[in-house]
Design brief:
By secondary structure, the chain is mostly helical. The radius of gyration is 21 Å and the shape is rod-shaped. Keywords: Membrane, Transmembrane, Transmembrane helix.
Length: about 50
Amino acid sequence: MDFFTVLFGFLPLLILAFIFRWVRQLKINSETQIKQNKEIISLLKNKG
């Protein structure tokens, strides 16, 4: 019984850590995508 109490005690912390990691990864990916889009636009402008 004690093991499950500890497990359910740590569960919210694990979920929170996972959410923060996920949000951070989304932010990094978004910044990379914006950078790539700017490069693509720049290349398209230079081509034409």
